[in-house]
Write a structure and sequence with these properties.
The strands form two sheets. Strands 2-1-3-4 form a four-stranded parallel beta sheet, sandwiched between helices. Strands 6-5-7-8 form a four-stranded parallel beta sheet, with helices on both faces. The chain starts with 8 loop residues before the first strand and ends in an 80-residue tail after the last helix. The longest helix has 18 residues. It has a domain of 135 residues: Rossmann fold (3-Layer(aba) Sandwich), CATH 3.40.50.1400. The chain is of the alpha/beta class and 338 residues long. The chain is built from eight helices and eight strands; from the N terminus they run E-H-E-H-E-H-E-H-E-H-E-H-E-H-E-H.
Length: 338
């Protein structure tokens, strides 16, 4: 394994989205720590796009201060949607352009990986181990809940994960839902599956970390369970710092070094005319999160930004934002905390 570039030391940077949830930020820190333990030959740091500190720029500064002039940067994300494809590369490219004698090589997302599927399967088995075995797998329905994005490629990957877990674990049926942006959202999806005649429903958030969205998934699960007392609803734990997840992060770093760093751009809506998203081909790679860098959970205050502009992050409008089973459904039955 290569440990240094021709320029000097090589460090590793894990780039996350960020969260206002302190627990989520701590869990992300635990992943960075686990990666350090797996790759002690590198200095490893982390940073966030928004809502938490340190921001990505600060993490890169720290690695430079340790003498690293080449950085292997990996997105701390399950799938490549707008954040991994546009926002993080924009931040990294800007930093490299403004820093002399400094090289950043960007890796790919965790993606649909057998290690990730095994980790997910173990989390689901962990939940099933807490309930009676009198209900068979064939009488149990699995609902995998993804983050949800305006990128159909990322949404499609969640559906593939669902199928692999369904077939691998032998459930009677399985469905895919999303926590936001796209459809179906959690509540309409759970209402739909409650009509299918299964005795048990396992709800599994395919998320790396906790946060507002995971808590909302569990909240809607409780809400629908109250309406259907004849069905047993089980809330499986999310991925978190499962050892196989940490192994997968280490694999992504190795891929950069070994020249096998292949991000799937064949179905990227920014580069090809994906059905329904044709207007987004060729949009510039720029981060829309600069005005919320460091805002949120961090103990340190980052330099203030001008907040006088529109806060829609500049994202291209999602064509199905008004779908009856998408974000519009949340207006009908909001959770008490919302």
């Amino acid at each position: 394994m290569v440990e240094t570039s021709e320029m000097g030391k090589t460090g590793v940077m894990v780039c996350g989205h960020g969260s206002r949830d302190v627990e989520a930020v701590r869990e992300f820190e635990a992943v960075a720590k686990g990666l350090r333990e797996r790759m002690p030959q590198f200095d490893v740091d982390y940073g966030f796009l928004e809502f938490a500190t340190p921001i990505i720029r600060t993490g890169l500064d720290s690695l430079r201060a340790l003498g690293n002039d080449r950085i292997l940067a990996v997105p701390g994300m399950l799938f490549a949607a707008g954040h991994a494809k546009n926002d993080i590369p924009s931040v990294l490219n800007t930093y490299q352009a403004n820093t002399d004698h400094f090289e950043i090589n960007y890796g790919r997302e965790l993606g649909v990986d057998l290690k990730m599927i095994r980790a997910a399967g173990e989390r689901i088995e962990q939940a099933l181990a807490t309930v009676d075995a009198d209900i068979s797998r064939s009488e149990t329905l699995l609902v995998v809940v993804g983050r949800g994005a305006s990128d159909p490629d990322a949404n499609g990957n969640v559906a593939k994960v669902t199928r692999m877990l369904w077939e691998g674990l032998g459930f009677g049926w399985a469905e895919t839902a999303y926590s936001g942006v796209t459809f179906p959202l959690v509540e309409p999806a759970l209402e739909h599956v409650s009509k299918l005649g299964y005795k048990r429903v396992v709800v599994f958030p395919y998320f790396l970390f906790t946060g507002v969205l995971v808590k909302r998934i569990y909240g809607y699960t409780d809400l629908v369970a109250e309406r259907h007392p004849d069905i047993e609803f089980i809330k499986a734990p999310y991925l978190n710092d499962h050892p196989l997840v940490l192994d997968c992060f280490a694999d992504r770093v190795d891929e950069i070094l070994n020249g096998a760093n292949l991000m799937n751009c064949q179905m990227c809506k920014y580069r090809e005319q994906v059905l329904g998203f044709e207007a987004e081909v060729g949009l510039p790679q720029e981060s829309h999160h600069h005005h919320v860098e460091g805002v949120g959970t961090g103990p340190e205050s980052e330099p203030p930004h001008d907040h006088s502009h529109n806060h829609d992050h500049g994202h291209h409008p999602y064509p199905h934002a008004d779908h009856p089973h998408g974000p519009a459904s949340m207006k009908k039955t909001p959770l008490p905390s919302d």
